[in-house]
Amino acid sequence: MSTALIVIDAQESFRQHPLWATISNPDIVADISRLVEHARAAGDPVVWVLHAEPGSGGVFDPAGGAVRLQPGLEPRDDEPVVVKRSINAFTTTHLAQELTRHGVGRLRLAGIRTEQCVETTARVASDLGYEVEVVIDATATHPLALHDGSGELTPDEVIARTAAALSGRFATITTVAEVLAR
Fold first, then answer.
1. Which of 69, 89, 105, 164 would you call most buried, defined as having the most Cβ atoms within 10 angstroms of its Cβ?
2. What domain range includes position 58?
3. How many domains does the chain have?
C-alpha cells in the first residue's frame, strides 16, 4: 500500500497573521522539509494543501498574495497543490482523486493548525477508509480560547488534546524522528 505525505496549510497566510507570534512550532518548515525529503527518497507522493477564503479580504484571500507555501517549501512539478475552502482537505478539493490515481491507502499528515485542519483531515480520511498517521511534531498551532471565555489552552495542551483524541480512533500518532528512522 502506497503512503502519501499530505502537507496541510504550511502557507504564508499564517506567517502574515498576528497569531504567528504565538505559533507552537516556528520552525515547522524545517520539520516538514525533512518529511518531504524522506517521502521523495522513498518514492512516496507528496501533496500540498493550501487554504483559501476568496473575497474575504484577509490573509487567506488569494487576492492578497499570501495563499502560497512558506519560503523553503517547494513542490516539484509532479506534486499537486490542492486549494481548499473548507477545514478538511477533502470536501472542496480533488484530493481523493489524486490519491486514487497514485494508489494511496495510507496518509501521513503534517501542517498548520494541529486541532483544526490537520485533525479534521485525519478524521475525514479515516472515515473514507485511509490509514492515517499524524506526525504530531510536524504540526503547529496557537493558543486556543476556552468556549466559556475563562482562559485558553496553551499550544502544547491543544496538541496533546488532539493527539489523545485521534490516537487509536482516527490515526496513529508519530514523530518526525520515528518517520525518518523507518
1. 89
2. 2-181
3. 1
pLDDT by residue for the chain (182 residues), tens only, comes to: 799 999 999 999 999 999 999 999 999 999 999 999 999 999 999 999 999 999 999 999 999 999 999 999 999 999 999 999 999 999 999 999 999 999 999 999 999 999 999 999 999 999 999 999 999 999 999 999 999 999 999 999 999 999 999 999 999 999 999 999 98
The answer to whether 5 touches 174, Cβ cutoff 8 Å, is no
Q: Which residues pair with 69 in a beta bridge?
A: 11
Distance CA 20, CA 17 (A): 6
- Which domain CATH number covers 54? 3.40.50.850
Q: How far apart are CA 74 and CA 35, in angstroms?
A: 13
State the pTM of this model.
0.97
